[in-house]
Specification:
The protein is globular, with a radius of gyration of 19 Å. By secondary structure, the protein is an alpha/beta fold. The two termini are 33 Å apart. α2 crosses α3, α3 packs across α4 and α8 packs across α9. The strands form 2 sheets. An 8-stranded parallel barrel has the order 3-4-5-6-7-8-9-10, surrounded by 4 helices. The chain has a two-stranded antiparallel sheet with strand order 1-2. β4, α2 and β5 form a beta-alpha-beta unit. Pfam families: Aldo_ket_red (PF00248).
């Protein structure tokens, strides 16, 4: 195991510091996730990140199985992350949901299982439950009870490690201070893409949009040179919790969710100057910056050239003076603007971090 490419988690397992993100919008055929994952594994990615909500785990399982079958990897070489959807926060639903993911994946265990969002929604077949008026149906669940069910998944061997996603500091402390805590979260992760596809129903689409605004369409750990999340990173490090972040390159510029006048991170003159200095792309400079701060990153691309290019992040290092310059690029700028809402008591973005 190359120590430069892995971080040790607080349960002694190791996570690859560069992950391959697999979310794709509705218009992208599921087959692309399958083929892109094969390309990523061939390129050297060993950390595959997905979620029950992405509705692509069957394709990812086929990709992983094919790479095991052709001798490229063994199962133990792959670090696979899945996530518990908001409709399955009730303790009795946690293991069955994980078992559904494992069945689709054709795997006996996941390496990391996360609570995807702290906001609970009504259980059922709909991943985005709404009433007859198109209003979202939330649920009230004590996330400490959800966490106990996650601990049982770890004890059963269905998940090697367990963690959370999109939790703020206060919510992390709620878990850490839980009486009888057996396992600390190994990480706090996040993703930009909350929904695998937009519904055709206008009422439901409006409901999705409202939820998107409520949840910020961005993780609490959106992390890049314009929003370097120093406070949250320092807090997580103090608790031996790894910060896993999307958004290292800014964000996908989806017109529906991102303002047209948002700055282009990868065109920033400072970042471009450092990239030219090191004969690298601005994207690789941004990725390298986060890695050197101890952040695990998940880079999403279905473009073969970019998938392979992202692996070059291990071929160079930024000196301290360049790291300091990029630190000063911080603007506390979120690409997806946080919108305060009190629709659910576990809404995570009212806190500073």
């Amino acid at each position: 195991m190359n120590p430069k490419r892995y971080l040790e988690l607080n349960d002694s397992h190791h996570i690859p510091v560069l992950g391959f993100g697999t979310f794709a919008p509705e218009e992208v055929p599921k087959s692309m996730a399958l083929e892109a994952t094969k390309i990523a594994i061939d390129a050297g990615f060993r950390h595959i990140d997905s979620a029950y909500f992405y509705q692509n785990e069957e394709e990812l399982g086929l990709a992983i199985q094919s790479k095991i079958a052709d001798g490229t990897v063994r199962r133990e070489d792959i670090f696979y992350t899945s996530k518990l959807p908001s409709t399955c926060h009730r303790p009795e639903l946690v293991r069955p949901c994980l078992e559904q993911s494992l069945k689709k994946l054709q795997l006996g265990y996941v390496d990391l299982y996360l609570i995807h969002f702290p906001v609970s929604m009504k259980p059922g077949n709909d991943l985005i439950p709404t009433d007859e008026n198109g209003e979202l149906l939330f649920d009230t669940v004590d996330l400490r009870d959800t966490w106990e069910a996650m601990e049982k998944c770890k004890d059963s061997g269905l998940a090697k490690s367990i963690g959370v996603s999109n939790f703020n500091r206060r919510q992390l402390e709620m878990i850490l201070n839980k009486p009888g805590l057996k396992y600390k979260p190994v990480c706090n992760q996040a993703s930009f893409a909350l929904f695998a596809r937009m519904p055709k129903s206008r009422a439901l689409a409006r409901a999705v949009w409202r939820l998107a605004k409520a949840l910020n369409w961005v993780a609490n750990v959106e992390c890049h040179p314009y929003l370097n999340q120093s406070k949250l990173l320092d807090y997580c490090k103090s608790k031996d919790i790894v910060l896993v972040a999307y958004g290292a390159l800014g964000t996908q510029r989806c017109r529906k969710w991102i303002e047209e006048n948002s700055p282009y991170l990868l065109e920033d003159p400072t970042l471009c100057a450092i990239a030219e200095k090191h004969k690298q792309t601005p994207a690789l400079i941004s990725l390298r910056y986060l890695l050197q701060r101890g952040v695990v990153i998940v880079a999403k691309s279905f473009n073969e050239k970019r998938i392979k290019e992202n692996m070059k992040v291990f071929e160079f290092q930024l000196p301290a003076e360049d790291m300091a310059v990029i630190d000063r690029m911080n603007r506390n700028y979120r690409y997806a603007t946080a919108r305060i809402t009190s629709a659910h008591p576990n809404y995570p973005y009212l806190d500073e971090y």
